[in-house]
Write a structure and sequence with these properties.
alpha/beta; Arc Repressor Mutant, subunit A; Aspartate Aminotransferase, domain 2; nine-stranded mixed β-sheet
Length: 471
C-alpha cells in the first residue's frame, strides 16, 4: 500500500510540475482519480496527504484539493553597495553570442525571451492575415506610425494615468530602438548616463552605440532603483540622462512603488535630467493591478516613455513605441533619419488584436502562468543549487537573478554549462565592471519539462563544482 500511494503521489506531482494541473486549480475528485489510476479511494487520499506535506496541494474544506507550488525559503540577493564611477561601455559581444546560439540545441535559460507556448500565437496569426488583406494600407511608409495603432496605444496609456493623443506616440522597432532614439536625442558622445545596477544588457548596449558613459546606481531587490544612490550621483557627477526599468526590472524583477516613482520624477526634474523609462515588463505583474509607469507622475514632459510588445505578444514582430514628451521633435527626427518608419503590417495586426480585446484576455491568463513558471524555477534552484545560493523574488516578468555561493564564478558556470548545451546569462553581462561575476540570470518563461529540470539540476552541480563545495 505504501509503495502504491507514493507512486500515485509521484504521478500527480509530475503532472503538476509539467503544468497539466496549474497553481490554484482544483484537482479532479478522489473518485475520478481512483478510476484514472486504478487504485482505491483510500490510496488516492493518502497520495493527497503526501503531496500536501510536500507543499504541492492545499486542502480546502468542502471544496477538495487545490494545486499549489512549494515555496522555498531561499534568501534574495543583496543590493550592490559599491559606489561607481562613470565608465565607457564595451565588450558586449557575449550578449550577441548568447542570442545567436542554436536555441533548438541549447536549453534556453539565457535570453529573456518567452517560449512560444506563452505567446498568443493563434490570435496574432489571425490578426496578421487580416492585416495582410488591407491593400495599400499595409504597403506604404507609416511615419510616425499607423494611426489605428497609435490610437489604441493612446487609449491604453490614458487608462494608466498617462493622457496622450496619438500624435504624441511614435512607433518603433521594439523598446530597444526607442531607448536608442531617446539617448541620441538628448545626449552627445561622452556624456554620463545613470543606469540601474545590475542593468539590462540591452540598455548598456544602447549606451555603447551612442558612445556614452554608464554610471551604475544600485537596485534594491524589491524597491527598485536606490533613490538615495541616485541623489548622491546627481550631486557628484554631471549626469545628462537616467534610464530606469521602473516595473519588474531586468534582471532583479523589482517594482518601484508609486511614491518612489513620483519621487524619482520630481528628483530628476529638479536636477534638469531627463528620465528614460523602459516599461517593457509593465503588463506582466504576477499579482494585483497593472502598475502605473513613472510617466503618470510627469507634469512637465521630462519623462521619455519607452515600451514594446516583445515580452507579451511576440519578440519577432519588433514592435514598440515611444512617448517623448518635450523631446518629441528631437526623437522624431532621429527616427526619420535612422530608418524612416516602422513596418506597417505588424502595427495593423497588433492594433486589430488590441481593438478586439484579445490582448487583455490573453494578459489575464498569461500573468498567472508567468508566476507559476518563475516559482517553479525558483523552487528547483532552491532544491538543486548548493547551500548559500540566493534567488530573486520577482514581482513580475519571468527572469530570476541568482547569486552563487562562495562567490563562485558565474562566467565559469556559463562556460561549463554551454559545453553541455545549457545556455545561461552570466552576471558580468549586467554591469560595466565585474561586480556581478558571481551571479547568473535565468529565463523562467519555458514550459516545465524533464529537459528543463535536468538542466537546472546540472547547473546546481556545476555551481557546486565551481564553488568548491560538494553537493
Amino acid at each position: 500500500m505504501g509503495i502504491l500511494y507514493n507512486r500515485v503521489a509521484e504521478q500527480i506531482q509530475s503532472l503538476i510540475r509539467e503544468g497539466v494541473y496549474r497553481e490554484g486549480e482544483r484537482l479532479p475528485g478522489v473518485r475520478v482519480l481512483s478510476r484514472q489510476f486504478g487504485v482505491s479511494i483510500s490510496t488516492v487520499l493518502q497520495a493527497h496527504q503526501t503531496l500536501e506535506n510536500r507543499g504541492y496541494l492545499e486542502a480546502r474544506e468542502r471544496s477538495g484539493y487545490f494545486v499549489r507550488l512549494p515555496r522555498v525559503n531561499t534568501p534574495v540577493p543583496a543590493m550592490a553597495r559599491s559606489r561607481s564611477r562613470p565608465a565607457p561601455v564595451s565588450a558586449r559581444d557575449m550578449a550577441v553570442d548568447l542570442c545567436s546560439q542554436d536555441q533548438q540545441r541549447m536549453v534556453p535559460l539565457a535570453a529573456a525571451v518567452p517560449h512560444a507556448d506563452f505567446l498568443p500565437l493563434r490570435q496574432i496569426q489571425q490578426a496578421s492575415l487580416w492585416a495582410a488583406r488591407q491593400g495599400l494600407d499595409v504597403l506604404d511608409y507609416s511615419f510616425p506610425g499607423k494611426l489605428v495603432y497609435r490610437r489604441q496605444l493612446a487609449q491604453r496609456m490614458t487608462a494608466l494615468g498617462v493622457p496622450v493623443v496619438p500624435d504624441e506616440i511614435l512607433a518603433t522597432n521594439g523598446a530597444q530602438e526607442a531607448i536608442i532614439l531617446a539617448l541620441r536625442a538628448i545626449t552627445v558622445p561622452g556624456d554620463i548616463v545613470a543606469v540601474e545596477s545590475p542593468s539590462f544588457p540591452g540598455i548598456l548596449q544602447a549606451l555603447e552605440i551612442a558612445g556614452l558613459r554608464a554610471l551604475e546606481i544600485p537596485v534594491h531587490p524589491t524597491d527598485g532603483l536606490s533613490l538615495e544612490g541616485l541623489q548622491m550621483a546627481l550631486e557628484q557627477w554631471h549626469v545628462k540622462a537616467c534610464v530606469v526599468v521602473t516595473n519588474h526590472s531586468n534582471p532583479m524583477g523589482a517594482r518601484m512603488a508609486d511614491s518612489r516613482k513620483q519621487q524619482l520624477v520630481a528628483m530628476l526634474e529638479q536636477a534638469g535630467v531627463p528620465l528614460i523609462e523602459d516599461d517593457i515588463y509593465g503588463d506582466l505583474p504576477h499579482t494585483g493591478e497593472r502598475p502605473r509607469p513613472a510617466k503618470a507622475f510627469d507634469r512637465t514632459g521630462n519623462v521619455i516613455y519607452c515600451s514594446s510588445f516583445s515580452k507579451t505578444i511576440s519578440p519577432g514582430l519588433r514592435l514598440g513605441w515611444i512617448v517623448a514628451g518635450r523631446y518629441q521633435a528631437e526623437v522624431h527626427q532621429q527616427k526619420y533619419f535612422s530608418n524612416l518608419a516602422t513596418a506597417s503590417l505588424p502595427q495593423l495586426a497588433v492594433a486589430r488584436f488590441l481593438e478586439q480585446g484579445g490582448y487583455d484576455r490573453y494578459l489575464r491568463t498569461v500573468r498567472q502562468r508567468y508566476l507559476e513558471a518563475t516559482e517553479r524555477l525558483r523552487a528547483a534552484i532552491g532544491r538543486d543549487f548548493p547551500e548559500g545560493t540566493a534567488v530573486s523574488q520577482p514581482q513580475g516578468g519571468f527572469v530570476l537573478w541568482v547569486e552563487l555561493p562562495n562567490r563562485a564564478s558565474g562566467t565559469e558556470v556559463f562556460r561549463r554549462a554551454r559545453e553541455e548545451d545549457i545556455n545561461v546569462a552570466p552576471g558580468r553581462m549586467f554591469s560595466t565592471t565585474d561586480k556581478f561575476e558571481h551571479f547568473l540570470r535565468l529565463n523562467g518563461a519555458n514550459p516545465w519539462s524533464e529537459r528543463i529540470e535536468r538542466a537546472v539540476q546540472r547547473l546546481g552541480q556545476l555551481t557546486a563544482e565551481v564553488a568548491g563545495r560538494p553537493m
